[in-house]
Design brief:
single chain, about 140 residues, Rossmann fold, disordered C terminus, alpha/beta, about 40% helix
Length: about 140
């Protein structure tokens, strides 16, 4: 069994959410990277090559800079080489009905509404990262 930890990038502007995910994922044997805005997220993907991305949809407006949201971040990530194979999990406190279709269209593999049941998210991450084939009978 491999001892190499999978890297998870958590992109959320809330430091409490980042810390909670960091603690939970480290306890589940993941390496955790964090980003609180779109530019940092895109740079982390370029330089750190995460194995999966957890991405919030809503970010506060930043004065004098590009307005980022999870969808814009996904659009930027799609332009990077090799990123299409990185599973993106949407995490949001917003109305899921407003976001699910667009998130899937942009390539999200799963959608989680806050508050998130961490065991379900970890299980989904493990499935995506091991690419377990579906059981056949």
């Amino acid at each position: 069994m491999s001892t190499i930890k999978k890297k998870i990038l958590v992109v959320d502007d809330d430091p409490v959410i980042q810390k909670a995910f960091t603690i939970k994922f480290q306890a589940s044997n993941f390496e955790v990277l964090t980003a609180s805005d779109g530019a940092t997220a895109v740079n982390a993907v370029r330089t750190q090559k995460p194995d999966a991305i957890l991405l919030d949809i809503a970010f506060p407006d930043e004065f004098g800079t590009v307005a980022w949201d999870g969808f814009r971040i996904m659009e930027w990530l799609k332009r990077l080489d090799g990123v299409s194979k990185i599973p993106i999990f949407i995490i949001t406190g917003g109305d899921p009905d407003k976001y699910v279709a667009r998130a899937r269209e942009l390539g999200a593999v799963a959608f989680f509404h806050k508050p998130i049941v961490h065991e379900e998210l970890v299980a989904a991450l493990n499935r995506a990262l091991t690419r377990e084939p579906a059981a056949t009978t």
